[in-house]
């Protein structure tokens, strides 16, 4: 027979005075004495149950909050870094970050912002896809109202195929970029013997 251990997480006011520089950590209670188990009808704990008491947001000191959550200073630093990255990429034709800056900057995830023509192209593709999908939905609804089909959206696969056809080039580019990322990650991975 195997035994099981149940884990429960509760919030309770108990972390108002943690030592400075430490992260809040849950306290564990393991009920093991019969006096901790209710004799009346109600909540009962198995001896193998562990209860983790987790502080609520209001119970964190400012230092603990700042260690766990992004502050306005963190947000400003991220925005400044993003602006620097986009500006640098645009200064170099929106193609890529110069080699000497690649350890500090990357356009990964924001390639479409590297130059204004890419941003316009991306926006146009999105509009084209949305319009084509909505046109197909309208057509299917019109067919339903005319009694040609039994449901308002009779062919969801057709709607999906329209979207896939119009975004195929983007999907292929994402696939290629993923392969490139995998190759770069593999090159950085330490060799094992």
What would you note in describing this structure?
- The chain has four helices and three strands, in the order E-E-E-H-H-H-H.
- It has helices at 62-68, 72-91, 116-145, 156-188; strands spanning 7-11, 27-29, 50-54.
- Strands 1-3-2 form a three-stranded mixed β-sheet, with no helix packed on it.
- Helix 3 (116-145) packs antiparallel against helix 4 (156-188).
Short synopsis of the structure:
The chain has 193 residues and is mostly helical.
Order of helices and strands: EEEHHHH
Major sheet summary line: 3 strands, mixed
Q: What is the β-strand count?
A: 3
Mean pLDDT, nearest integer?
Answer: 77
Summarize the amount of helix as a percent range: 40-55%
Rg? 28 Å
Summarize this structure as a short list of keywords or feature phrases:
single chain, 193 residues, mainly alpha, three-stranded mixed β-sheet, 47% helix, disordered N terminus
List the helices and strands and how they pair.
Layout: E1 7-11, E2 27-29, E3 50-54, H1 62-68, H2 72-91, H3 116-145, H4 156-188
Parallel strand pairs: 1-3
Antiparallel strand pairs: 2-3
């Amino acid at each position: 027979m195997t035994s099981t251990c149940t884990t429960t997480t509760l919030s309770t006011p108990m972390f108002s005075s943690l030592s400075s520089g430490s992260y809040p950590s849950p306290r564990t209670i393991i009920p093991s004495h019969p006096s901790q188990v209710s004799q009346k009808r109600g909540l009962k704990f198995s001896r193998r149950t562990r209860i983790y008491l987790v502080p609520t947001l209001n119970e964190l000191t400012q230092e603990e909050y700042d260690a766990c959550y992004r502050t306005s200073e963190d947000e400003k630093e991220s925005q400044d870094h993003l602006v620097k990255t986009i500006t640098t990429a645009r200064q170099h034709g929106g193609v890529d970050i110069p080699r000497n800056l690649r350890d500090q900057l990357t356009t990964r995830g924001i390639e479409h912002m590297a130059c204004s023509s890419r941003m316009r192209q991306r926006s146009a593709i999105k509009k084209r896809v949305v319009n084509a999908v909505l046109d197909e939905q309208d057509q299917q609804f019109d067919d339903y109202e005319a009694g040609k089909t039994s449901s308002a959206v009779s062919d969801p696969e057709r709607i999906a195929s329209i979207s896939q056809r119009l975004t195929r080039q983007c999907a292929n580019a994402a696939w290629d970029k993923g392969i490139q990322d995998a190759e770069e990650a593999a090159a950085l991975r330490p060799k094992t013997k």
